[in-house]
Amino acid sequence: MNYRHGFHAGNHADVLKHVALMTLINYLQTKDKPLFILDTHAGPGRYDLASPEAQKSGEYRHGIGRILGAAEVPEALKPYLDALRAENQGGGLTAYPGSPLLLARKLRPQDRLIACDLHPKEAEILAETLYPFPGARVRAGDGYAAVKALLPPPERRGLVLIDPPFEKTTEFADLAKALREAWKRFPVGVYLVWYPLKDRAAANALHADVVAAGMKDATTYELYVRDPAASPGMAGSGVLAINASYALDSVMRTAGPYLAKQLAQGPGARFTAARLTAE
Ligand SMILES: C[S@@+](CC[C@H](N)C(=O)[O-])C[C@H]1O[C@@H](n2cnc3c(N)ncnc32)[C@H](O)[C@@H]1O
Question: What SS3 class is residue 74?
Fold first, then answer.
């Protein structure tokens, strides 16, 4: 468990994932009914971009750093950028909010957030980050176990974010298994799953598993920041959404091509949206 998201906070992958996340939460909150939110792999929640980790990798500069101050930004990015500005009230870009903080700030009195992290230190920082939010609770432990323990939620309306670190070679398989389990327990839930674009076959296998499991309304939104054939490593990332195309499709199809242009790190940068299964 060496992964620390602090090295990557605010990078192109976070931008893609958090644009989708903010779009989904805003859409789900157009109804007054209580909403349950589960963040299975939450991280510490807030990142200091002046920290040695963030400065060492500098990844945020080629992610949110290219967007927050950009002259022209599509309206589709507004909820995400508003959240970023709320975190950087002095102006500039010094802090990056992770998924649990983005979600906690959106909680209404009737909503509930459970955020998990397996790493004891990250879970401890996460508890401090979420302390001011009465509707948010930290579960220190395995996010995949939380899926089993907490779904379906009594609210019957829910958003589940699954955002593993992909440190382990079995992560794609573990993720596919957990997603099947989650969907079987709670088929009307809205799911957002992040995955790296490093090994095309592994991403395709995840897509195939979703189709084989019979999940309806599955869509993927993928952002390559460079040509994957140019060099090994992560050339981009994707989000897989279940039961969310009505909320995400038009926003992602507007935001995606802009992100591909703005976040390009070389030739071959591109965005694709694909429907895996019908509603
Ligand atoms: C990619 S980061 C999360 C970033 C966060 N979701 C965001 O968008 O800001 C993945 C996190 O998962 C944690 N982690 C690793 N394995 C886990 C597991 N089985 N269950 C829960 N958390 C885990 C790591 O400690 C790390 O903080």
Answer: coil
What DSSP element (H or E) covers 27? helix 12-28
Q: Active site includes 163?
A: yes
101 lines ligand 1 (CB under 6 A): no
Which residue of 38, 118, 124, 167 sits with most ligand 1 atoms within 8 Å of its CB, as the best mutation to test the pocket?
118
Residue 39 Cα: closest atom of ligand 1: 6
Which tokens sit at 219? 């869509």
Q: How far apart are CA 243 and CA 278, in angstroms?
A: 10
Q: Name the helix (H) or strand (E) containing 126.
A: helix 120-130
pLDDT mean over 151-162: 98
Q: Is the pLDDT of residue 2 over 90?
A: no
CA of 24 to the centre of ligand 1 (A): 20
Q: Which of 142, 163, 199, 217 is catalytic?
A: 163
**DSSP state letters, 98-112:** -HHHHHHHH--TT-E
Using the mean position of ligand 1's atoms as its centre, give its distance from the Cα of residue 278 in Å.
Answer: 30
Is residue 163 within 6 Å of ligand 1 at its C-beta? yes
142 ligand 1 Cβ < 6 A:
yes
Cross-strand pairs, 219: 241, 275
The ranges assigned to domains in the chain are 5-218
- In the CATH hierarchy, which top-level class contains the domain 5-218? alpha beta
pLDDT at 12 over 90: yes
Q: Is 57 helix (H, G, I), strand (E, B) or coil?
A: helix
CB-based burial label for 4 (10 Å; 0-12, 13-18, 19+): middle
> For residue 143, is pLDDT > 90?
yes
